[in-house]
What does this fold into?
Amino acid sequence: MVTLEETELKGNPLKADKRVQNLIDRSHELARTHKRDLYVDNAEFLVYHWSGEAAAFSPNTGELSAAEDTRINLGDHNARVDVGGTFPFADEMPSKKKGFSYDTANWAEDYAFFLDHSPAEVHEHERIVGEFHWMLEEARFFQYPESQRKLGRLARNLGTGGISFTHTAPDLSIGLSLGWGGLLSKVKSRKEKFIEYGNKASAEYLTAMESVVESIMRFVEKHAEVAEQKAAAESNPDLRANYEFVAENTRAIISDAPQTFAQAVQWLQFFTTVERINGHGNGYGRLDLLLDEYFAADMDAGRISRTEAVSLVAELYLKYGGNYWSFGGRDREGNDATNETSWICMEAYDITGGYNHLGLMWHPDIDPEFYNYGCDVTARHNCGTPTLVNFDVLRNSQLRSGVDEEDAWNMSYSGCQWYCVVGKEYNDQDLNSFVLVQPMQRAMEIAEKNGIDDFEEFWKIYDIEVDKTAEILKDFKNETYKWQSKVWPEMVTSLCMHGTIERGRDVTDMQAVKYNYTSVNVLGTPNVADSLFAMKKLIFEEKKYSMADLRAAVADDWKDNELMRLDFLNQPKFGNDNPDVDEMAVRVSEHIREVLEGKRNIKGFNFRPSLFQYMGHTYAGELLGATPDGRHAKEPFAHGMNPMHGRNTQGIAATVESFTKLDYSNYQGGSFQIEVQPSFFPPGSRKGDLVETFSRIFFEKGGVQINLNTIDLEKLKGAMDHPEKDEYKNLVVKVTGYSAHFVVMDRRFQEEFLQRVNYASL
It folds into this structure.
């Protein structure tokens, strides 16, 4: 079934046909009507990535959901499709009828019941099916014992916190090659071995996993039955053909491994559906590598047209735009991994546009035509998709951490700013926070009490306080790791990880996978660098103010101290290619890296910093107050390693110079967030050419990631005031590491977005 004109393919702007356009319209409508909203409990969760109220993001419904007047809407970033109300069978969950316990059998029984009582739906116009309306945490209690929560509260007081929940990259080639039936046979076979060996714990785990796989197979079969029923009742020949297509492909993969491109795409959609019922945020590797052999075989056999392949991948994106897929990078031998399916995957986004999360992994040897097309797609769609990522920096970061050469090549951008060795790494990424401002504030208090008048002596105090925060984070995470596999195992993910079934251990458990680093988002690095630089000059060198003067001023949000505030504000700031303050930024960043790398978790791996924080910078001021960089309490903090809002006054080139003075292979991410006005692109120029040139220069300087928005500020202001207008309803922005429809975002997020530096030209 051809759905696009062949002449429009291979890197030219594409348009959706009527069938796919219907699905695009539905996707936008779900967002606009708040059917995709994702919540956090409160501002504390954003800042510390943990509130103590729930063990993950705030459930939309259920006993651990936050009140509507306190929870914060991150935007349309949820995998579920809201249909209103709680899970209808919540009171009948086995753990509520028979009793709750922290063990894998109890969890698996709940999961299987939940999936068995989740509806199978096949919507009009669909050829790829599978979605859900509730997550397991809305029906099963998801909270850690008090021993963990007590440490969490102590950690938060010292400026850190986090949850341990998904955020890894399973190797879906395992599932594609085996199918659900093959995975089930593998689980059963290994279970029998552990029974033979007398390993009761592993046998019990695999028994629980067995019931999970069987429930997934029943779930897939339900979709085949629904499609068959709809096909039999449908009089419209086009719709009937769609239902028959769905029925054939879903029935083919109930047990057997997918054999065609369409079946492979459908298998991937079912996997992400049943996995995200259990979790929130995994990445899924390189889609072009996963699908290329299916596409080549189908083309050779005449089973598919190139245009139909594009349409099927477009549907995969539309089912849930938050799936993190990536393309490009290098292969095992270090050569460019771009293939024909890379083009298909990019073209598929080109016809959908809008909200999605895809990563284009650049390296100097990448197919220049393909990379140029990807840059053009990013520029034309205006909302930071695909994210542009430096593959070699990601790989070098992994190698530096201790990842083996044989694994580092199969590394994928997986979400926001983070990345994983596919199938072999459980990083606990992106959901731990280190609020660097708090150790600085404690150091200021100690310096005042002890009359410290030398900056290096002050730095020693700061070093001790940073270490103190890192130490409590280590204790908190280790207590979490003791319980994680019992509290909330990730069995679906574990099906496609190397070694988990073989060891009879959940991916969250000890010694389950090869790599288990703990990655930590660092909040406020530029603010701390600017603050320390200003204090060094005005307090310790010029002696213009005392530490007591400064602490009193910031404690009162600079009230009656405006001239003093301007003194601190007007000191050189990071982001303007000033060598002195940039040197301080490098020193602060390298210091937190050294401190965290000096801590090891109970799985035997060190902690790693990420110079990123997804939205805590927006609300941090109300919890932490004003800061010595001249910032008022009501103002946001800097986002990640990006300069503080409005302080990089020397243009984008100077900002890039400051930003790339850090070696990002030392860190676990550090995205460069850039908002440009439409005037940034000269009349008559091809946007993609300019984005390609800029990104290549940025990457050659060692930058790791670019999140690019093309923003018409007046249009966004109009969207804030009149979200009901049709012209604003489909506006999508790259918020930080994720995308969202602008009109559904929290008001504070919208206001912060408008405060960012928006470049009008180079």
